[in-house]
Amino acid sequence: MPEREFKRPVGIMFNTDRMSGIDLVDFAKRLEDQTVNTIWVTELFGREPFATAGFLLARTESIRVATGIANVYARDAVAAAAAGQTLTEFSSGRFVLGLGVSNAGLALQRGHVWEPPVKKLEMYIDSVRYSQITIPGDQVTPLHVAAHGPKMLDMVIPKVDGVSTFLQTPAHTQNVKAQLNSSTELNVSQMCLLCEDPHEARRLARKALAFYMTLDYYHRAWRQLGFSNPDFKNGGSDVLIDSLVAWGSRIDILTRIDEHYSAGATEVVVIPLNPEGGSHPHWPLINAITE
Questions:
Q1: Does 3-192+248-290 carry CATH code 3.20.20.30?
Q2: In Å, what is the CA distance from 196 to each residue of 147, 192, 199, 204, 242?
């Protein structure tokens, strides 16, 4: 494949909660200089994502900042709508409101009772859409929602500006794209690992996927792609691991990214796994896919 065909902008998602504030700003500015489209700010049990997004938007000039994802159990819909509209106003339209239901375990850790996820998210989306937020300006905050299962996709597609998928294959990207209208964006998160040793790459990939490999709703999604119960045992089969994590050389990783774009992704959101671990992303990987 000609090199020029690989020149597609990407988004970057990375848990920055362990970075200092100074390092976080440096991270954002470096990504902006390398023409990354979007920084996706995670929400776990560290920094508050809307506050972090505001901090980054105030210190950058052109890069988009998105919550990826803001947990709907963490705040009510009106609060999320107000935060989104405020950041959109102050950044001249560079903020993206990314929402999701997360999972039952994380909801329980926050002290909430898990509710049927499709209904929970439907009510939340509707509340965000119909909230009367009285602030200056008329810019609308783009609303992107995490979904990969058929019931969730059926519900969210008519209601949102973008769909975000996680831990899925290019075949899944193609299936989702076929359901979207022409104006709905499709963000595809892709774990990437710049490591050419198969044994080491799969060891690190299994470590990164260990939590998700325990979640039944991912098993259901992967079964729809042709995988079965044996693929979910012992940290995941080689075939499943290789399908979910793009590892290898620069060209190997760019090829997987391009497969998602060819399947219909609007933005491939790279999760840059660092072979050495730690609180910082793997800059050789980021440089390799953005140079």
A1: yes
A2: 31, 12, 9, 12, 12
